[in-house]
Write the structure tokens for this entry.
Amino acid sequence: MSVDYRPMWSQLGLDLNAHDALLSVLGKAYQDIFLAQTDRPEGMKYFDFVMSEVHGLRIKELLDAKAEGRKVIGSYCVFVPEELILAVDGVSVGLCAGAEFAFAEAEKLLPRNTCALIKSAFGFKLGKVCPYLEACDLVVGENTCDGKKKAYETLDDLIKNLYVIDLPQMKSESGKALLKAEYQKFAAKLEEMSGKTITAERLRKGIEIVNNKRKALHRLAALRNASPAPISGLDALLVNQISFYDDPLRFTNSVNALCDELETRIKAAQGVRPQQTPRILVSGCPMAVPNWKLPWIVETSSAVIVGEESCVGERGSRNLTQDGSDTRLDLLMDNLVERYFKVDCAVFTPNPDRLQHIREMFATHNAQGVIHYNLQFCQPYQIESGGVERQLEDAGIPTLVIDTDYSQEDAGQIRTRVEAFIERIQG
């Protein structure tokens, strides 16, 4: 029996008509893109259920947690440490930023040549269609680029509970010191609003939960090395997307159950595509729900995606936080800073580690080509893509750079370029 969530959405202040329209479009896209796939693993049924309740049951869980006195913390970036949020018994959720919604309203406050991810964050707020955003006790931004840095000044007028973490721009000791100071301030903010003190024991528990989640994602990534591919790139991307807002314990168990099934499929040489299917590594900007355009085009063009060098992918989950036998809070905080400082976001300059990781992933996943995905007007990744393309091509790695946004207007053009690229790598 279906549950009527409209009173809950109304209580959160959503525009019900606009929200209905968004869910209608999202539901049809999910049906056409994900449920139309054949020979999907049974384990994906859990993630299908999560998406069917994306604005329903999970939102109710967040409100139930708030009723118990827990704080819901929303964020837009992998640099916001979930471990600290869990250390005050908080709930960490990613925020909607993957669809072209209310851009006309957003462009009244932002330049038109602002990247789609930033405009989407504004559109979901101005359009009153994101229950995650409205359920948050604190919304955390981060200065990962100049666009976000300045946009948060305007978003602060729209969100009463916005907190911004500053980030270093260089991988230096002074940069690491800045990140540590910012995380210490963020920890103090969480303690203040939750009334709970972050102890070494609490932080160790938070680190353990998040490490286990990342270990499950590492296991999934490793299984994608197999040929034929045991899971589609679309489904693997969906798992990574859901990791940002699902309950971490339940999510980890569900990913490991999926991996158990994939191991069985690999032993039986059962894949979602024939063994000779061209294998693609996608690199570049993050893809938040429901940004599925490029993966859908690639995987309906006779190829399979076997890895994502992205914040919504292996860049975001690559490293674990060392906990070892440390019993001192300051040492655990140092370990936390060390882990996040390794994230090779394009905001850092210089950024050689990212190129090295693309090369490593290309080899590990037995890929045959790299598609570098840029959101238009995302200067860090667009500028970095030039050097990435040149150096990968010089190393004999076929590379295609795609610049796009959240609209469907260029889907045909992208498909033509992707199909030509696949023909190239097939020789």
Remarks:
- The beta strands are 72-75, 91-94, 138-142, 162-165, 279-284, 304-309, 369-375, 399-404.
